[in-house]
Design a protein that fits this description.
CATH superfamily of the largest domain in chain A: MetI-like
Largest interface: A-B, 23 and 26 residues
Bound molecules: adenosine-5'-triphosphate, magnesium ion
Oligomer: heterodimer
CATH topology of the largest domain in chain A: MetI-like fold
Order of helices and strands of chain A: HHHEEHEHHHEEEHHHHHHHH
Structural class of chain B: alpha/beta
Largest sheet of chain B: 6 strands, mixed
Strand order of the largest sheet of chain A: 2-1-3
Low-confidence stretches of chain B: 1-11
Number of helices of chain B: 10
Chain lengths: 387, 272
């Protein structure tokens, strides 16, 4: 073999320059879009943090503005003092101030509803709505997913059911809101335990001897239950899909081994499928629920009010079952709706900024921490259950 | 139990003397699509009690399908259907309407190709079958776990780590654990679908030894792709081809003196 043949050519050289340039361009475009998205995220979170963080911090110990978390929302007063200094005060502070200094000069007095005080009401409301939503949607969603994935016969009907569930996920949230209002709020089919039935609304009320209360079919009105269930209905498609995914991910071998050992179908599901699907179900469901928890439309006709002086349990009447029933049929404030009220419903003014960004920042923290907890839980579970 | 007869655990169960058929399959045809096409066609064979019977044949010929008919695991497939014929086990037609597949499976254990212990402790894996039968008494479980692990030749290796995860065992150990799990419920028949195909030669040899020992207490039906394995472990061998039973005889005859050309070609490695 002549020597020149083996050394003259590099067999690994690039095939063409043009190809190289094209490749580079492609990668560049992908990278640019990725960075644009990242920049958007940084700007959004940065802006909210910059404007929101100062609201929940303060300069002296304990450095956290606890009042923002513990006070109820109230009217904010803004006025100029005699020296021309602009002052903003929550309603309670303002009245105390007036009482102490009846002669103080107050110029340009303005009031802003819901923009003062703290956000304990919206926080509690959102929490309770999420809890109702979570209990109902997890229970119904997991049951439905188990039925669809483990019991239902495969075929056209099953596909049709799956398709309609998928379609539910695409229904706009305001539609759920309207549905919830018509179904849970206004229709009288949903009963409450009460000592004083609303005879005008009630279809009928069943006296509950020996107490002097009634099981009254009068509908739930705008309430925690109505809002929580509306959110649950909205979360269901996502939860069912997530549960089915998790159930499918459990190896077939576990089911077969279990059944071959003489387990009944339900024993098999309970002991050889659900424990291993649980981490996935929980994480995906919690993420799905966090998404709907941030929605305003489904709760604005079903549960949320702009202002409320009392927390649900402070306002509940009666004892035992009656107390629970009354608490669950209270309307509440909720973070997303509160943000909507102080941003969209009131004429814009710099005085509102603290409440707006403070609430948004807290809301974001809340949602992110729920997501983090679920991711953390999954990681823990995963370590324990590996196959 | 001894090697001359095989009995059910419960007192009222029928007894089948060794070498008498414990499973008898009569003209069985089976379909995965509600009878449109038959995956198994007109299969008749008797499987003797207390023996090891091997199913061999090329891939896709229906060995697993037939095995899964025996403990009605095919019930899991919605469109599965026995089109003709009968399977009698211990004298009972197992597809009769008053037969509960769950009860059937308590008498007929199954070991799968891919070892599949639950991600639980070794102890809980072996106790699983008893627990689903509602047996939760600690001393009963302890005894059953030890006995089963002894029989599956795993006890000495795992007795100090019963509460650690089964997934920490080697592949061969996991498969022996699956065998222990299966025999813990004291079935009479143990079905094995290529139990060694995911194992290395040494682990395979241990399982084969184990099969020889288990033969004393159980009737074993084993599917295998490995001709040497069939000759080593089985008493009788059935050769299947395209859903039909081609030849069924003493293992020595099938491999030494097959009557049918297809069998001869297959066992001598000329096709399949
Ligand atoms: N669940 C099922 N649904 C439909 N068809 C199936 C199913 N399981 C197996 N089959 C088909 O039935 C035929 C026999 O399959 P089977 O698994 O019994 O073969 P096998 O002899 O065990 O093969 P291998 O040696 O590869 O395991 C194959 O054609 C297969 O495609
Ligand atoms: Mg097979």
């Amino acid at each position: 073999m002549p020597e020149s043949k083996t050394v003259s050519k590099n067999p690994f050289r690039a095939s063409s320059r043009k190809q190289k340039v094209k490749d580079g361009l492609g990668v560049g475009v992908f990278a640019i879009f990725t960075y644009i998205i990242m920049a958007c995220a940084v700007v959004i979170i940065g802006k909210i943090t910059l404007d929101g963080l100062p609201v929940i911090l303060k300069s002296e110990a304990p450095f956290i503005n606890t009042e923002f978390f513990t006070k109820k929302t109230m009217t904010l007063n803004q006025f100029d003092t005699a020296e021309g200094e602009m002052v903003r005060m929550d309603n309670d502070d303002f009245y105390a101030f007036r009482e102490k200094n009846p002669d103080a000069v107050i110029n340009n007095h303005k009031t802003f509803s819901y923009a003062g005080g703290g956000i304990i009401g919206p926080i509690v409301g959102t929490f309770m709505l999420v809890i109702v939503c979570m209990i109902v949607s997890l229970f119904v969603g997991i049951s439905a997913a188990i039925y669809l994935n483990e019991y239902a016969r495969k075929g056209k009907t099953l596909n049709a059911i799956r398709l309609s569930i998928m379609n539910l996920a695409g229904v706009p949230s305001i539609v759920y809101g309207l549905f919830g209002a018509a179904f849970f709020v206004h229709s009288p089919f949903f009963p409450v335990f009460t000592n004083t039935p609303d005879w005008e609304k009630a279809l009928f009320a069943m006296p509950l001897w020996p107490t002097d209360g009634y099981l009254s079919f009068q509908g739930w009105g705008e309430s925690l239950l109505a809002g929580g269930l509306t959110l649950a209905v909205m979360a269901l498609p996502v939860i069912i899909a997530a549960c089915e995914e998790s159930l499918k991910a459990v190896p077939k071998g576990f089911r077969e081994a279990s059944l071959a050992l003489g387990a009944t179908k339900w024993q098999c599901i309970r002991t050889a499928v659900l424990p291993y699907a649980a981490p996935g179900i929980l994480t995906a469901s919690v993420l799905g629920i966090t998404r709907v928890a941030g929605e305003t439309a489904p709760i604005m006709f079903t549960a949320a009010v702009a202002g409320k002086d009392k927390l649900p349990w402070e306002d509940a009447q009666g004892t035992g079952l009656y107390w629970i029933s009354d608490m669950m049929t209270q309307s509440v404030q909720a973070l997303p709706y509160h943000i909507y009220v102080v941003t969209g419903k009131l004429p814009d003014d710099p005085a509102l900024k603290n409440m707006q960004y403070g609430s948004v920042f807290v809301f974001l923290l809340l949602v992110i921490s729920i997501a983090m907890v679920s991711v953390f839980l999954r990681a823990r579970f995963r370590k324990k259950l590996k196959w | 139990m001894n090697d001359s007869s095989v009995t059910l655990d419960s007192a009222d169960a029928p007894v089948v003397a060794a070498n008498e058929p414990i499973i008898s399959i009569d003209d069985l045809s089976f379909s995965y699509d509600l009878g449109k096409t038959n995956t198994l066609r007109n299969i008749s064979l008797d499987i003797p009690a207390g023996k090891v019977t091997a199913f061999i044949g090329p891939s896709g010929c229906g060995k697993s399908t037939l095995l899964r008919c025996l403990n009605r695991m095919n019930d899991l497939v919605d469109t599965a259907k026995v089109t003709t014929g009968k399977i009698n086990i211990l004298g009972q037609d197992i597809n009769a309407p008053d037969v509960e597949a769950i009860e059937l499976r308590k008498h007929i254990g199954m070991v799968f190709q891919k070892y599949n212990p639950f991600p639980k402790s070794i102890y809980e894996n072996v106790a699983y079958g008893l627990r689903v039968q509602g047996i939760n008494n600690k001393s009963v479980l302890d005894q059953a776990v030890e006995e089963s692990l002894q029989k599956s030749a795993l006890w000495s290796e795992v007795k100090d780590r019963l509460n650690t995860s089964a997934l920490g065992l080697s592949g061969g150990q996991q498969q022996r654990l699956c065998i222990a799990r299966t025999i813990a419920v004291k079935p009479q028949i143990v079905l094995m679908d290529e139990p060694c195909s995911a194992l290395d030669p040494i682990a395979t040899a241990r399982i084969e030894e184990l099969i020889a020992e288990l033969q004393q207490d159980f009737t074993i039906v084993i599917v295998t792709h490995n001709m040497q394995q069939a000759t080593r472990v089985s008493d009788r061998t059935a050769f299947f081809y395209l859903g039909e039973l081609i030849e069924y005889d003493e293992t020595t005859n099938i491999f030494g003196n097959p009557k049918i050309k297809q069998t001869e070609d297959y066992v001598s490695g000329r096709f399949g």
